[in-house]
Amino acid sequence: KLCPVGWHVPTSSDYSYLGQFLWCPNQWEVSNCPDLLPEGRSGFLALKGGQRRFFGSFESVGTAGFWWKATQYSSADAYDHRMYGGGAQFTFDTKKSAGKSIRCIKD
User: Is 103:10 a contact under the CB 8 Å cutoff?
Assistant: First the structure.
């Protein structure tokens, strides 16, 4: 398993709930988004780590965050959660061979 006992990879429902608290103005600068700071009410520090595409190149480092979800799309693909400027959030299906950040949340 990826997460320790008592923790799990977030589902779409988990991210939907989190998303209710994380809209931020001004291009998603942490200084303008107190809920994304460690002492913020969400407890979710959203670092903009970008992603490694399935063919090996890196993109969006410092400008967007990409996190795996627990939900599979197919045997070769899974869903991810993406956060872009202004707090915009999206879900996409993506190749499992791509590199995303991972979060484990407490059960």
Answer: yes
